[in-house]
Amino acid sequence: MEENKDYCIVADYGFEKLEKILSIIGGKWKIQLIYHLGQKHTLRYGELKRLLPAISHKILSAQLKDLEKSGLVQRIEYPEIPARVEYQLTRSGIELMPIYEAVNKWCEENGEVFMTE
């Protein structure tokens, strides 16, 4: 089967949705938070802080709130003393994992792109 080199598959989708999701998950900390929650499934605030020691409490709280507002992370608060709060990916957040895998595969296959800097 001959491939049509003039056809661009992204033309079917446009750029707006990709641009939107990249703005939601973009940045150093959100990507790392989604990664850790994808690995561990459920983490408490203190566990996330230990996994990302360079992040400040203010930034960690803000990033988690942003991800929660975007519908990618769920905050679960338990009525206990002392308070216990856990974070986990929502269904939408979990569905991002194949995208992470695809980007990682692309990076492995195209590593020379990063070596030009």
Automatic annotation (TrEMBL):
SUPFAM superfamilies: Winged helix' DNA-binding domain. One of its GO terms (molecular function) is DNA binding. InterPro entries: HTH_HxlR, WH-like_DNA-bd_sf, WH_DNA-bd_sf. It comes from the Bacteria. Pfam families: HxlR. Keywords: DNA-binding, Transcription, Transcription regulation. This is HTH hxlR-type domain-containing protein. Residues 8-115 form the HTH hxlR-type domain.
